[in-house]
Amino acid sequence: MYTKGKSFSEIQMGEKASFTKTISESDVYLFAGISGDFNPLHVDEEYAKKTNFGTRIAHGGLAASLLAPVLGMKLPGLGTVALETTTKFRKPVYFGDTITCLVEVVGKLDRLKAIKMKIVWTNQKGEVVSKGETLVIPPG
Predict the structure, then answer these.
(1) In angstroms, rounded to a whole number, what is the distance separating the alpha carbons of residues 78 and 62?
(2) What letters, b where the CB count within 10 A reaches 16 and e where it falls short, cover 9-23?
């Protein structure tokens, strides 16, 4: 029924995978409910208009969460366990932005049988909104 993801030995240096999603108002409100983060910058347009952004923005964690379908469904895929992820936020994500999360294999740690990947999140304009790294253990 399920196909296990790539094993440590099957994954190649430079291999890439991505996931793309347009961030909707519903996504932001659902994320607020899940996370408990009801900061008015995300959920109150009148408040947000008075900020440097001029409008509501999505939670940084919402855009960052687009990493999950890449790791868990594509590369390495089903059975992957994330050990560590770092994220540096560079630009805001606005309602209606289409965000792509792209990972690239940049290292293999033989001792742990772990994979190190570079992560870049971009918007529909090709602007980097976040970047980071992750260390995962692919399925055995």
Answers:
(1) 21
(2) eebeeebebbbebeb
